[in-house]
Amino acid sequence: MYAVVGCSNCRALWVVEDRPETTQCPRCRTRHRFERLKVFAEAEAADAAARARGELLAERAEAGEFVEPAAVDADAVGMTEEAFLAASGLDAEEVTAAGDRRGPGEGSRSRRQVVLDALADLEAPTGDDLRAYAAEHGVEAEYVDRALAKLERSGEVTRADGVYRRL
């Protein structure tokens, strides 16, 4: 038997197997006596209990109860992506549509990562080569210059005769 229980401190929901004497909240790490916890749903199978938990989280989100995305335990037994997005206040269909609009190979890289990738991909890159590479990937030249200066100061990059090399 599986039960969906809730924390009296942080209001987190999680699935507990059988009826242990105590259980720990996965979010705030508070230890609770099982008999004192509110049981929101019970099921014979773990996946059914996980679905019930996801539905409870979705109901909270629909009721306008905002849940911080960092507070949602995505590793909880059986939480679906849709339930996670709903609990975070996001529309799963909109998120999917946004992902579909992204072109092939257009991963989400930080500007710093673009500069580091340029250093790795280009052979004997000069400042102009790095700025051109970065511009192709939507990073402004001013940022490239600042990033290279920081990387040099931190000792991650060296420049000799105008050519940059990652250390």
Brief descriptors of the model:
single chain, 167 residues, alpha+beta, Arc Repressor Mutant, subunit A, 2 domains, 3-stranded antiparallel β-sheet, two-stranded antiparallel ribbon, 7 strands, 41% helix, elongated
Describe this structure in words.
The strands form 3 sheets. The chain has a 3-stranded antiparallel beta sheet with strand order 2-1-5, with helices on one face. Strands 3-4 form a two-stranded antiparallel ribbon. Strands 6-7 form a two-stranded antiparallel sheet. By secondary structure, it is an alpha+beta fold. The termini are far apart. It folds into 2 domains: 2-99, no CATH class; 111-166, Arc Repressor Mutant, subunit A, CATH 1.10.10. The protein is built from 6 helices and 7 strands. Strand 6 (157-160) and strand 7 (163-166) form a beta hairpin. The model has no long low-confidence stretch (mean pLDDT 83).
Secondary-structure blueprint:
Layout: E1 2-6, E2 13-17, E3 22-24, E4 31-33, E5 38-43, H1 46-62, H2 81-87, H3 92-101, H4 111-121, H5 127-136, H6 141-154, E6 157-160, E7 163-166
Antiparallel strand pairs: 1-2, 1-5, 3-4, 6-7
Helix pairs in contact: 1-2, 4-5
DSSP summary, beta strand count: 7
Mean pLDDT: 83
SS-based class: alpha+beta
What is the CA-based Rg, rounded? 24 Å
Low-pLDDT parts are none
Count helical runs. 6
Q: Identify the strand order in the major beta sheet.
A: 2-1-5
Percent strand equals 15-25%
The SSE string, one letter per element, is: EEEEEHHHHHHEE
Through-space gap between termini:
56 Å
The largest pleated sheet is described as:
3 strands, antiparallel
- Total domain units: 2
Oligomer designation? single chain
Helix amount, in percent? 40-55%
Q: Tell the overall outline.
A: elongated
